């Protein structure tokens, strides 16, 4: 009887290590089919889950309240499982080199509690080689077991898109890989339990790892091109959104838009690939130039806020500016690696301390990571400039008269980074309107 059969018949359990934006939806989905242990080091987060609260907003409070997942911060509980999925974040250090400490730490914890006959699947984004060359040796060292003989390893990159209610775990084709054919077959069958869109069997672990890092690198490069176009067209006095709408009528024109590229995927994954490339003697040109453009956009936007303040005859130092939205993307509470902070940081160089409001953002995370406190939208008034930084649904509903009420005397400045408002409507109302 294979491990797959024993899982389905509930003779064995599945564990999920790391219960964030990626891990929680996986745990909740699997718990409908097999017995699941959900482990996270963060005891406070585990208590929230046990209370039926979903701080990630990925599956919702109701689903967390009703799930059969056995939530725990006790690592010894992992000994009760035989199929382990590691879904911890893989960020970058300040010098843009990969920070493998979360995945190494998870490997140590799991290694201490690994039992014979287990399969370990890594979902964290890594460069090719990490699963076999970094994680497997840690599992062996901590467990005293032999990889390939006592336990098997596999890799299945996460494709969860935080805040996206359409592209979910169930509806996105899942890449799976294993260290041998038998492992690949079991891993594929296990994921097929929850992924309705089916699985793609990669020929090796390294192929699956590489596929993951290039997915987001491709998006990053395309967005960098759009951001560069935005800088060029801005200098020409041409509206970039209008240009893209016109060009987009061609059947094979790719629909990318300029914007801030933050978060823990698109803004991070390319650095994993370029780091590995450097190790083998190749210096990336296209990928790193795209990264440089995208990393500079916060500074560029802040400079244009200042230029518009001057154009409107406003005093720059001490100007009253409000930033709407702080998360790395719309309709998602995640503030990690948000590039909106770059705007705030740059504005402070000009003596501007902007107010920030975000009805969706994780308040404690923003306070912990950025020492930032949000103000209530209703407390914002007498502003010189409003910056619509994130396209939350709540902000899209704001009317011209509601936005009018946020301003003080003099020319009104609206910096609409994502272009969510009607440019003509605001310019006809006498606004200084600027967007990427």
In which order are the strands of the major sheet placed?
A: 3-2-1-4-5-6-7-8
Class by SSE composition: alpha/beta
Outline: elongated
Helix content: 40-55%
The fraction of residues assigned to DSSP E strands is 5-15%
Question: Can you walk through the features of this model?
Answer:
With 436 residues, this protein is of the alpha/beta class. 40% of the residues lie in helices and 12% in strands. The strands form 2 sheets. The chain has an 8-stranded mixed sheet, sandwiched between helices. The chain has a 5-stranded parallel sheet with strand order 10-9-11-12-13. Helix 8 crosses helix 11.
Write the layout of secondary structure elements.
Blueprint: H1 3-8, E1 13-17, H2 23-30, E2 36-39, H3 43-50, H4 61-66, E3 70-72, E4 81-86, H5 101-112, E5 118-122, H6 130-143, E6 151-155, E7 174-178, H7 181-192, E8 199-201, H8 205-236, H9 240-247, H10 269-279, H11 286-295, H12 297-311, E9 321-324, H13 340-349, E10 355-357, H14 363-370, E11 385-388, H15 393-396, H16 400-404, E12 413-416, H17 423-428, E13 432-434
Parallel strand pairs: 1-2, 1-4, 2-3, 4-5, 5-6, 7-8, 9-10, 9-11, 11-12, 12-13
Antiparallel strand pairs: 6-7
């Amino acid at each position: 009887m294979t491990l797959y059969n024993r899982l389905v018949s509930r003779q064995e359990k599945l564990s999920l290590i790391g219960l964030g934006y990626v891990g929680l939806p996986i745990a909740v989905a699997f718990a409908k089919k097999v017995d699941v242990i959900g482990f996270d080091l963060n005891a406070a987060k585990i208590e929230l889950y046990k209370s039926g609260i979903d701080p990630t907003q990925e599956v919702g409070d109701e689903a967390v309240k009703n799930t059969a997942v056995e939530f725990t911060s006790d690592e010894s509980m992992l000994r009760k499982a035989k199929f382990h999925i590691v879904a911890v974040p893989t960020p970058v250090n300040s010098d843009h080199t990969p920070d493998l400490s979360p995945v190494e730490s998870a490997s140590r914890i799991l290694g201490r509690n690994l039992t014979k006959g287990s399969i370990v699947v890594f979902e964290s984004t890594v460069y090719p080689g990490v699963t076999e060359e970094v994680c497997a040796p840690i599992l062996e060292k901590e467990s005293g077991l032999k990889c390939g003989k006592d336990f098997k390893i596999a890799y299945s990159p996460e494709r969860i898109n935080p805040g996206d209610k359409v592209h979910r775990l169930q509806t996105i084709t899942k890449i799976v890989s294993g260290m041998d054919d038998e492992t690949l077959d079991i891993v594929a069958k296990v994921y097929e339990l929850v992924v309705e869109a089916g699985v793609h069997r990669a020929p090796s672990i390294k192929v699956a790892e590489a596929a993951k890092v290039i997915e987001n690198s491709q998006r990053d490069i395309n967005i960098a091109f759009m951001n560069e176009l935005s800088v060029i067209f801005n200098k020409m006095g041409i509206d970039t959104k209008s240009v893209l709408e016109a060009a987009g009528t061609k059947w094979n024109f790719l629909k990318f838009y300029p914007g801030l590229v933050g978060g823990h995927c698109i803004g991070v994954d390319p650095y994993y690939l370029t780091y590995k490339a450097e190790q083998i003697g190749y210096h990336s040109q296209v990928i790193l130039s795209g990264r440089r453009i995208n990393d500079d956009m916060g500074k560029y936007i802040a400079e244009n806020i200042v230029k518009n303040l001057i154009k409107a005859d406003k005093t720059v130092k001490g100007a009253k500016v409000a930033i709407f939205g702080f998360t790395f993307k719309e309709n998602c509470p995640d503030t990690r690696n948000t590039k909106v902070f770059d705007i705030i940081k740059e504005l402070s160089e000009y003596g501007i301390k902007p107010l920030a409001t975000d009805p969706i953002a994780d308040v404690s995370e923003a306070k912990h990571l950025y020492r930032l406190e949000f103000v209530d939208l209703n407390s914002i008034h007498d502003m010189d400039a409003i910056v619509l930084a994130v396209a939350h649904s709540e902000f899209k509903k704001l009317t011209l008269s509601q936005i009018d009420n946020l301003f003080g005397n003099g020319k009104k400045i609206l910096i609409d980074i994502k272009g969510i408002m009607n440019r003509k409507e605001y310019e006809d109302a006498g606004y200084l309107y600027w967007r990427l």
